[in-house]
Amino acid sequence: MSSKGKKSISLVLFLLILFMSLPGESSYLFATAANAKNGITNPDLNRLTGNAKSLRETAAGNPAGGAAEVYVSDSSETEPGPEVRVETPVFSIPAGTYNGAQSIEITCATQGAEIKYTTDGTIPDVNSPNYTGPIIITTATTITAAAYKDGMADSETAAVRYIIEITATDADGSPVDMSLWSCYENPDGLSYTLSAYCGDIADGRILGKVPAVIDGKPVTAMKWTFSGCMDLTVAPEIPESVTELCYTFNNCINLLQAPEIPAGVINMEYAFSACSALLQAPVIPSGVTSLSHTFYNCRKITQAPVIPGSVKNMSYAFAGCTGLVQTPGIPYGVTDMNYAFSRCTGLTAASAIPGSVRNLKYAFSGCTGLTWGPEISDGITDMSYVFTNCSSLTDMPDIPDSVRNMSYAFSFCSSLAQAPAIPYGVTNINGAFSHCGSLVQAPIIPESVTIMSYTFWGCAGLAGDVHIPDSVTELSNIFLETSMPINMLYSAANTAAEAYFAPENVRKAPEGGIETTAAPEFYPAPGIYQGPLTIELSSATTGAAIYYTLDGSEPTAGSICYTGPVNVAETTTVRAVALREGMEASEISRAEYTIEKPLPAIPAGFRTTETSENSITLVWEEAAGADGYELECDGSIFNMGTADQFTHEGLAANSRHTYRIRAKNAQGEGEWSPALVAMTKLLCPAADSISRTDTSVSIGWSAVDGALEYELELNGAVVRTLSLTEHTFTELAPNTGCTIRIRALGTESQSGWSKEYRIYTLLPKPSGIRQTVRATLVQLDWEQTDSATGYDIEIDGEIAAQVIQPSFTSSGIIPGTEHKYRIRAKTASNVGQWSEEIVLRTYLDIPEGISADPLADAVVFSWKGVEGATGYDVSIDNVTIENISETVYKHTGLGPSETHSYKLRARYREVTGEWSQELTVSTPQAGTAICRVSGKNGRAFDIKLSAVDKVLYAQKTFTVTYDPEEAELVDLCTLTQEKELTAADIPEANIKVLRCVPGEITFCIKNPRIIAGDYYKNIINTIQFKAKKDGIITVTCQIQ
To answer: For the Fibronectin type-III domain, which residue ranges apply (predicted)?
Structure first.
């Protein structure tokens, strides 16, 4: 059966049915759908009931060799019946192209169904992620989902693809290729988070620049952006708008150079964690509040950055930084130092811990090189594990009175020979000194302690008495692995100790209680003295040791042991306690000595160390005998306390200021220093205009008050000093980056360098542009531009297309319309100069093949159709007939010998083309007949002349004319048996041929008197021709 007229049928789906049966096992039937277009087989299998195995088989007859999943039950249950299928998942947003990130929700109409999905185009299975909430789509992504529920057949798989059109620019306003980045819009709807770099890394650097603005909204967070980029060695520039750097460079194990951190950043959690090759930490801005894990395991950092006063959280901040030798200053305000310097094995010294800290757990654990502990301010309550495993620790400062928990605080401090005094208030010393092998004397245990488990575990060198206070209720393994016996001193009321200790290890208190040591006495007596003083201490108890403090803290066995006179040079409060083995500690004695001093000297080294646009920093050296300082700033006096530096802020740029310093003590103020005059810096210039070509960069800036001239730096070298506020660097290479900085110079001061402006020259203009214009089409071709990876096409002021090859075709243009075109080259991170504007106008061709054929009473005006035309206008004697839809027009109602002029134009709706040349045509004279024949080259045709009554045409002559180039005479009269080709009588036809030359035949009727009923009564003659061309052939006949 013929398929002519039938519609084409595409086979788009066929089913491959497989049936597998294993001995003793149930079998199941399934199908795979195959795409006939590309031959890919995609299994879509229902999850089967029972304990199913998955076998991979090759589908028989599958040309693509695709694999099908065969499930065979291991159970002995009977084959289950048909199951109800879970409803297919539905997406909240249909597939398509969107401008900007989208939040996609997936739902399933089956109650209790579990939705699995993928975003990489693969079919989801039981191992795919569970859908738990909206999926943020920022780049082209295919989401595939399926729903599952026990006891039901799995849903059909649903898939959608989203194309996200995102425009972005870097800090300089240059376009950024967003195919290299993943991002999402923040919940505020006003900013973006840059979540991943998806491009390649070449020579240790990323391709292009970091987007600073996405869809007109600033990038404020960079979370996980470069995490795991192991080939990255130099970090890219961070946009100034960023405030969060969370996990940004996490695990960049080869990163050598960190970026400059923008001033607005407040969160740097995990920012550089595990950057094991990083040599130097970046400067931390003054607004950062969290440094949690920021430099975790950065093993090559040897010097920590300055910690700004805004920081609150330093947990794990430098943990694992094994190259760090000194901790940074910890500002007041930090509250969390959990594990802050844990495992910093190279650390030998630590800064003081401020009173704001509340969590110090594990802060220095594993710092095996630390020899002395930092000063810890009052306020800490929990010191558990703070110095555990600090095996080199030999000295410890006083434990603050605020501490309550010392669990394992000094465990494994194997070099610690003397334990610090435990303040009253501590309740837990569980494991506090475990494995302190060098410890020989236990500290006095205050009456506040309730837990002493494992306190001296592993203290192999411990000897002497240990006093167990009545407050202790929990005792276990106190002296595990410790030399015994040790004298245990406790009262009979302490039932926990009575039950725990073996008799051979105990020396109990005598009946009536333990004797108390006599309190220390002071000589000379407390009072007011002139100049330095020597103080002696004594106790009435023979053999008692005296311990004292000079800082106001309570003395303990860990305080300074009195061995001779104490020298006091300033007002001091001395506190002392007397201790003797086997006796209770004495009461604490207190003596206050007021030492009157002379007036202090003028502080030396008074100078400026740093100036900025709005501040001046002053420093001075400590003056002998000074209790504090006063600073005079421009005539106003300010109390400096004991500080040795001051920053005068809020000043005007390029302003002069005068300062004096003096010391003071209880006796009064010393003399003023000589006046110090200092100037603030000029305001730093800021670029307010940047333009570029392919070989130049122009930069302009606003004038700075007080500036006489400006220095410009190009690529690190000062290249120009000038008094203008703009400059153009020329003779640069196309598509090349350069860095520019500016600073202002005045008579007495200068500004700092401006920020670094990283600018790329443009790619060159496209050259050799050629254009082809048609009625509905414009084609542009040009020469390939060096380094270009593509081109932007601008049409009428808007970028309308992007192409890779140096050619562009715009079709479907309205004929006869004018458009403006420009072209520029581009790369992934740069663009070129626009070409000169090209103005092109599409046109409607003048119709061709125009002919005007006269008839006896009309003229037939015809032509060939014009591409793009919707109609035609015909002008007859300058009268226009508009919008003719055909390619022929018949001018009717004409008389003989009428002459008319004709012209024609094409039109597209309201747009018209040019008029054709005017054509003048006359209708035939009276008695003239015209015959137009559609000829076929080599084929014969007849011209038949007939009349109602040929008798009426007696005595008349017939002249037939034709173009001998178009037709050839075959027979003068086909009414006879013989062919006639010459002038002669033709009696059989009753005519006489008077003239026969190529192009003209003349004949007449020979005898008009015809008998009635004659066969030839109406036919005058029939002449035969043969066409010599294809097309219209005109033959005329004039009767005279």
So the answer is: 602-683
